[in-house]
Amino acid sequence: MAFGAKKDTASAEVKSIEASLKQVEDSKKRMVYQLGELFYESNKDNESIDEVYKEKVDTIKKLEYNAKVWNNRKLKTQGLRMCDNCGNTLPYDSSFCNKCGYKLQPVSEELVII
Ligand SMILES: [Zn+2]
């Protein structure tokens, strides 16, 4: 009985420690993610970025581009497109944006290979 009670206490303590450990690890992951986002935003146009980071920054740029292509494809199925300048949604065959007046360029529909 005494042994069982001691075991339960130890088990509860271990669970509590594991919960604290998970909380710390989750916070660390969030901070690393936020650091990565900050680094990317401040270095995505940096031509002299260190080689260590360049490949990942370039991959993120390609992923952002492909996300835009998928969004363009989705809009096209609805007969729509987006203004490259202000983000306004317009009829697909528009030549100018009816919100900002920007002369629209052909819509990017080709994915880049990553
Ligand atoms: Zn516009």
Structure report:
It is a single chain. The chain has 114 residues and is mainly alpha-helical. It folds into two domains: 1-43; 50-114, no CATH class. The protein contains two helices and two strands, in the order H-H-E-E. It has helices at residues 2-43, 51-77, and strands at residues 80-82, 89-91.
Secondary structure elements and pairings:
Layout: H1 2-43, H2 51-77, E1 80-82, E2 89-91
Antiparallel strand pairs: 1-2
Bound molecules: zinc ion.
Which cofactors or ions or other ligands sit in this model?
zinc ion
Q: Compute the separation of the termini in Å.
A: 61 Å
Unreliable runs, pLDDT <50, ≥5 residues?
Answer: none
The Cα radius of gyration reads 25 Å
**How helical, in percent, are the residues?**
55-70%
Order of helices and strands: HHEE
Enumerate the strands of the largest sheet in spatial order, edge to edge or round the barrel: 1-2
Q: What's the helix count?
A: 2
Tally of structural domains? 2
| Residue-averaged pLDDT | 94
Total beta strands: 2
Tell me the fraction of residues in β-strands, as a range.
5-15%
**How does the major sheet shape up?**
2 strands, antiparallel
Assign an overall shape: elongated
Structural class by sheet pairing and helices: mainly alpha
